[in-house]
């Protein structure tokens, strides 16, 4: 008898774990119902019957859902080996598959739904610019896609920035995500003090090997200036100018080795370790997220806030970044 069937006989506890996993993905029942109808191609009443536990999701549907929504089957079956489940969803951003699009739509929907909770919080610890900042700037966005393809794409098909085409679907979804991130009630950024130095160094390198033209470098430079203007406005006001939702912008006094983040509401909790520039390891395990959140909050002890308070340090930081960009 399979592990799955054995656990099915134990008062159907696995089904409760499974339903909890679905609720973590879509906290609002109406959104969950619509998503399941679309994914499984079944009627609304059929979804209701499964969610009410009148009948169980067939195993093939569970596998379909777990695969599409990146849910751990270990978590579904309630197997606990003392390990925290982290999941990774590799995405080909240059050629999005149907599965990639479904995953990104889910990310956008979860981010947008955070705006429905007055206590929603997102925190980002970064040694490179987070997507929620740079994707609003076309040439920076294209540069990051180019850099990812150069490092992790087909080595035999390496092309210069001028030959990179950002898929229209990705541009549309990027715009949706960029707008959704502004809906979170409270956002915290802790940035490596050399975050712009790293980026400028990368642009110079690719320009030096003729992968970026003089004209393209100037367009990236213009985007960087505009990004700094936008961040300076955030730092002065302590909020996103589009929504007035609170933002704390902090600079770390210690080096940051990679990007970490979490999202947190009463209904949705997740933490992320961002790797390979474009991929991320994620966990929806409640205990892990709570511990991750507490650990990340400790990072404030070795950082200083430049939004709203400490005007002298704020001016010093941005003056240095503007000078750095001008020398690019």
- Structural domain tally: 2
What is the 3D form? globular
In helices, the fraction of residues equals: 40-55%
Number of helices: 14
Annotation, overall tally of beta strands? 8
| Oligomeric form | single chain
DSSP strand (E) fraction? 5-15%
Task: Give a short account of the largest sheet.
Answer: 8 strands, mixed
- Strand order, sheet with most strands: 1-7-6-5-2-3-4-8
Report the radius of gyration as a whole number of Å: 22 Å
Q: Pick out the low-confidence regions.
A: 1-11
Structural class: alpha+beta
Mean pLDDT: 85
Instruction: Give the ordered list of helices and strands.
Output: HHHHHHEHEHHHEHHEEEEHEH
Distance N to C terminus: 65 Å
Any descriptors?
eight-stranded mixed beta sheet; disordered N terminus; alpha+beta; 14 helices
Task: Describe the overall structure.
By secondary structure, the protein is α+β, with helices and mostly antiparallel strands. The chain has 2 domains: 3-79; 88-326, no CATH class. Helices cover 52% and strands 13% of the residues. The chain is built from 14 helices and 8 strands. The chain has helices at 3-8, 13-25, 29-40, 44-51, 59-68, 73-77, 98-113, 131-134, 138-152, 168-180, 195-208, 214-237, 286-298, 311-326; strands at residues 87-88, 121-126, 186-192, 246-252, 259-264, 269-275, 279-283, 303-305. It has an 8-stranded mixed beta sheet, with helices on one face. A hairpin with a 4-residue loop joins strand 5 (259-264) and strand 6 (269-275). Helix 12 packs antiparallel against helix 14. The longest helix is centred in the C-terminal third of the chain and has 24 residues, at 214-237. The N and C termini lie far apart (65 Å).
């Amino acid at each position: 008898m399979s592990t799955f069937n054995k656990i099915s006989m134990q008062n159907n506890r696995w089904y409760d774990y499974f339903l909890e996993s679905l609720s973590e993905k879509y906290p609002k029942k109406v959104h969950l119902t619509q998503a399941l109808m679309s994914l499984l191609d079944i009627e609304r009443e059929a979804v209701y019957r499964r969610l009410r536990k009148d009948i169980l999701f067939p195993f093939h549907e569970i596998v379909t859902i777990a695969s599409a929504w990146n849910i751990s089957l270990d978590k579904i079956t309630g197997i606990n080996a003392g390990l925290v489940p982290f999941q990774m969803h590799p995405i080909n951003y240059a050629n999005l598959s149907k599965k990639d699009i479904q995953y990104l739509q889910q990310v956008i929907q979860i981010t947008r739904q955070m705006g429905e909770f007055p206590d929603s919080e997102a925190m980002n610890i970064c040694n490179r610019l987070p997507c929620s900042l740079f994707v609003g700037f076309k040439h920076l966005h294209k540069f990051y896609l180019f850099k990812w393809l150069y490092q992790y794409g087909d080595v035999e098909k390496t092309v210069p920035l001028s030959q990179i085409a950002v898929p229209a679907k990705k541009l549309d979804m990027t715009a949706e995500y960029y707008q959704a991130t502004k809906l979170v009630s409270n956002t915290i950024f802790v940035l490596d003090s050399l975050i712009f130095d790293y980026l400028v160094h990368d642009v110079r390198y690719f320009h030096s090997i003729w992968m970026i033209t003089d004209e393209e470098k100037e367009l990236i430079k213009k985007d960087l200036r505009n990004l700094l203007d936008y961040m300076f406005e955030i730092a002065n006001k302590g909020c996103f100018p589009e929504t007035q939702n609170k933002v704390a912008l902090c600079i770390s006094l210690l080096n940051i080795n990679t990007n970490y983040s979490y999202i947190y509401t009463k209904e949705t909790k997740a933490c992320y370790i961002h790797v390979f520039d474009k991929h991320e390891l994620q966990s929806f395990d409640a205990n892990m997220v709570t511990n991750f959140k507490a650990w990340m909050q400790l990072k404030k002890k070795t950082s200083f806030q430049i939004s709203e308070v400490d005007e002298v340090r704020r001016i010093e930081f941005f003056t240095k970044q503007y000078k750095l960009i001008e020398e690019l």
